[in-house]
Amino acid sequence: MNKAFVKEQDGDQDEDLPEALALPKGTKNYLTPEGYATLREEFVRLMNEERPAMVQVVSWAASNGDRSENGDYLYGKKRLREIDRRMRFLTKRLELAEVVDPAAQTNRDQVFFGATVLYVNQDGEEYRVTIVGVDEAEPLQGKISWVSPVARALTKSRVGDLVTLRTPGGIEELDVLEISYPV
Question: Which of 75, 78, 86, 91 has its CA nearest to residue 46?
């Protein structure tokens, strides 16, 4: 069948998202001010720079004639769909966003959204993690999502608390050593 008559999937519904990016049902999309600014900057860049540049390439490629075997045209159209899909995703996430400023946290002796926590596991390995929004999580840089198992286990704990983390490998205990918030 000709591709012109096949409906393309949008791929921006929550069930199509990787599990790491899906928000739990009925929850808000909590973001730090920095995370919100990063998403907003990406949206503006896509809208004002990347999309217009790709439209220009597609327009030029379309003027070259036969589009069925025109690689620039086919790639350009595909890239435009990817940009549009990402822009729709960012629009939805920014609309759902609830910005929580960790610097405004008054109860600084407990772990909440935005806290940086130093903890040690039962093997004696120390980890320093910052609890951030789903869209700004970067586990390799120590930024974990507030819906992650580690963040949920640490939430509401205090320095000196021993918290229980359920993992596929069994139950692990984490000892909270330090809690800090940005100033």
Answer: 86
Q: Which residue has the tokens 């596991």?
A: 121
- CA 140 from centroid of its chain's CA atoms: 14
- Which has the closest alpha carbon to 86: 10, 33, 9, 7? 10
Instruction: Kindly provide the residue ranges of all beta strands, DSSP E only, lying in the chain, ordered along the sequence.
Output: 29-31, 97-99, 116-120, 126-132, 143-145, 162-167, 170-180
Q: In the chain, what are the domains? A: 28-99 (1.10.287.180), 102-180 (3.10.50.30)
pTM of the model: 0.79
Give tens-digit pLDDT for 87-109. Answer: 999 999 999 999 999 999 999 99
